[in-house]
Design goal:
Low-confidence stretches: none
Mean pLDDT: 86
Shape: elongated
Oligomer: single chain
Radius of gyration: 23 Å
Number of helices: 5
Strand order of the largest sheet: 1-2
Structural class: mainly alpha
């Protein structure tokens, strides 16, 4: 336990906390781009998982959990400006990039593209119907790898924008900047 540490922020009277890096257009754009890339990844993962359900090798629950994690991260990045989840999104993107490259190239066995040859059964969906064509699944896997590469790059760019930097400014300055929630001294800081 840390002793002699303030339990809440003490603000100078007449001042409020603002986040100047969140006001920048580049920060808002990166937040939107990272969120859209995460949601595009979820869409691609779910299409590949459902469309090739019968041929996936044991990663079905992992794909569902991975998709849920990406949705949660996208929510926190977009609505809460959670900078701390950006390196986690990049790390998960690296792992998924590796898996997608292995699945697309067939490094560990058979790729989706190889499954179009004679002797391979057609994939079936989660619901028992005919799944997507193996070539379509292969192209979607390549696209997923490219999207993961973009996710890694944009998440790290967004992380470098320092969304978490706080500055105390006079209340008038905060109102001029467009902040609606004003923290008072003795209350937890919100912006």
């Amino acid at each position: 336990m840390v002793r002699n540490m303030a339990q809440r922020r003490i603000l100078t009277p007449g001042y409020v906390v603002v986040y100047p890096n969140r006001e920048k257009a580049a920060s808002k754009l990166m937040k939107l781009v990272v969120t859209l890339i995460l949601l595009a990844s979820v869409g691609l993962m779910l299409i590949i998982t459902i469309g090739g359900w019968s041929k996936l090798q044991g990663l079905k629950p992992v794909n569902i959990i991975w998709s849920l994690l990406y949705v949660i991260i996208a929510f926190y990045v977009f609505f809460r400006w959670s900078r701390g989840l950006l390196p986690i999104a990049a790390a998960l993107g690296i792992l998924l990039l590796i898996l997608a490259v292995i699945a697309a190239t067939g490094v560990a066995g058979t790729s989706w593209f190889d499954r179009n040859n004679p002797g391979f059964g057609a994939p079936h969906t989660l619901f028992g119907g005919k799944g997507l064509d193996p070539n379509v699944l292969g192209v979607l896997t390549v696209i997923l790898a490219i999207v993961q590469l973009a996710q890694i790059v944009f998440a790290m760019i967004a992380f470098s924008q320092a969304w978490n930097v706080e500055v105390e400014v006079p209340e008038e300055e905060a109102k001029r900047r467009g902040y609606k929630k004003i923290s008072r001294p003795g209350q937890p800081a919100t912006a």
